[in-house]
Amino acid sequence: MTQNIKIQDQEFILHPLGGVFWIEKSLLLISDVHLGKVGHFRKFGAAVPRKAVHQNFLLLDKLVSAFEPFQICFLGDLFHSSLNKEWQLFENWVAKTPAKIVLVAGNHDIIAPEKFEALGIEIFEELVLEEFFLTHHPTEHETLFNFCGHIHPAIKLSGLGRQRLRLPCFFKSKNQMILPAFGTFTGTHTLAPKKEDEIFVIVENKVIKV
Questions:
Q1: Is the dihedral of CA 182, 26, 204, 202 positive or negative?
Q2: Do residues 171 and 151 make contact, with C-beta atoms less than 8 angstroms apart?
Q3: Using one digit for the tens of pLDDT, what is the confidence trace for 2-46?
Q4: Conformation bin of residue 152: beta by default, left when phi > 0, alpha when psi is -120 to 50
Q5: Local confidence band at 47 (pLDDT 50, 70, 90 cut-offs)
Q6: Is 163 exposed, middle or buried (0-12, 13-18, 19+ CB in 10 A)?
Q7: Contacting residues for 83 by C-beta, under 8 A, at least 6 apart
Q8: Which of 188, 206, 179 has its CA nearest to residue 18?
Q9: Would you say the pTM of this structure is higher than 0.85?
Q10: Which residues are paired to 3 by β-bridges?
C-alpha cells in the first residue's frame, strides 16, 4: 500500500520499496541502492547468500513497473564499491529499462563517471528541479525543498509491554524528506523525530504515517 503526499503543490507517491514517485514529472526518486555491496562483502569472505546479488535488481524492476516513469533519479550511493561482477548486471538492467536515468553522486559512487556516461547516465553533484533540491547528503536550502538520502533513516516504535520495533521510514521535516535506503543489505540509522516532523514507516509492504 502506497501513501500519497503533497509537497509544494506537487503530488508524490511513497512506495513501500522505498521510492518516491513525482506524479507531475513522471520522475522516480530512489536512494542508497548500494549495488555491488553484496559482491564486495562476499569477496572478503562474508557469508552473504549469492541470491542477494539479484534481489536489488528484482526489486528495482518491481518499483519501475509500478510507476513506468519517464525518468529515474538515483539520490546517491547507487554503486557501493569499485567495479565488480554486479556492474555487468547493472549494465543489463539499464539496457532493458526504458526510463532516462540520472545520478546525484553520493560518497560511495567512486566508479569513474565515464562508465556511467557510457550507459547514458548523467551524473550531477546536486540537481534543482523547479522548487526541489535533489542531493545525496541532507542539505538545507533557504527556498527549496530537499529530497535526499545517505542516512538510511529508521525510527523506534514502542508497543504493548516491552515490545520495540525499529522500522525504516521516509523522514519528512518542514523543508526536507530523507528517503529510506533501497538496498537490501544496507542497515538503518535510528532518528528521533521532533513534534513537527512527519514520519512514514515501511511495514508489511505498506507505507503508514505514524
A1: positive
A2: yes
A3: 999 999 999 999 999 999 999 999 999 999 998 876 554 445 444
A4: left
A5: very low
A6: exposed
A7: 36, 111, 115
A8: 179
A9: yes
A10: 14
